[in-house]
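[audit] Reproducing an earlier prediction to check determinism. Same input, same settings, fresh worker. If the tokens differ from the archived copy the diff job will pick it up downstream; this log only records the rerun itself.
[audit] input (310 residues):
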Amino acid sequence: MYEVLMFDGGVYRINELYELVEDIGGFVIQKTQLQVAITVTIAIPSEDRPIIESKTKELGGKLVEVPLAGTEIAVVAPTLGRHHMPHPVCDIAEHLRRYGAITVVMGLARGKGRETAQITADEMAFIEEYDAAIFVLGNFADCIMKEKVRLFEDIEVPVIVVCGPNISSLPNCEAVVCGVGRKAERMRHADEIAKLEETALAVEAAIFKRRNIIDEDPLCVHPAEVKQRVDELESVRQSLRPSPVVLHLDGLRVKVPYDQCKDMLRDIDIFGRKLGDLTTIAPSRLGGSTMIRILTTAQLQTRDNAQSSS
């Protein structure tokens, strides 16, 4: 089983870390360099963590736990207007990035008004491309409990609700974080930062639960292994979009148009098999992107059996 960690240190002798990660069968997921400082997110076999810890100490860096690394999470507000788009939405998205997640903020097209708020099938499908969704609702318990619960009742990915009133639980969501309503300023006081931590821990618990479900029928190949091959494609190397390949719990998002890269993706060699045999590849609802969903071991066996019998 792979463990995702982040190295935080300097660029001096950083190639030694890259070589060591490769030698133990791990992967470099992401690099972020700022002058002579660098952070590197790596996926390594859990049993080899002491080796990486020793090298990190030798290089004068530190290893940071990033429990949400390898996930992409949507932070959803009822609308993008200032009525529903206060600072907490952005603060939550930013705080989750410190835990290693890639986050995106989105608003619903017709979320304004307690009785008129709605979510379309396209919006639900868009949200379900992510590993989890955080719905940041308002200050009125009656509005949330009677009307706004409709917004996420049919969403299949884990949902965490963040709201102002004290609500013990809501249907169809993993957790409710109370005490964070609409605010006109940044969340920078101690009690507000504690709420950001509470939100991050709720997301971490939901992701951990989903990882355990996936481990019951493991993926036929780890997303980090696929990413390593996808990064070698010329169209991906030429992409100017930030993080052109984003890891998910069960696949990847490649920020290259589907029509441009579908054939190249399907032909990638993964341990002697084509990527198209091990995954489903489809256009993403996020414009100009492609979604790769990795088959589980059981799904791959079923597909292979069906192909051999036909």
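[audit] rerun output stored. Observation attached for the diff report: The chain has a mean pLDDT of 90.
[audit] end
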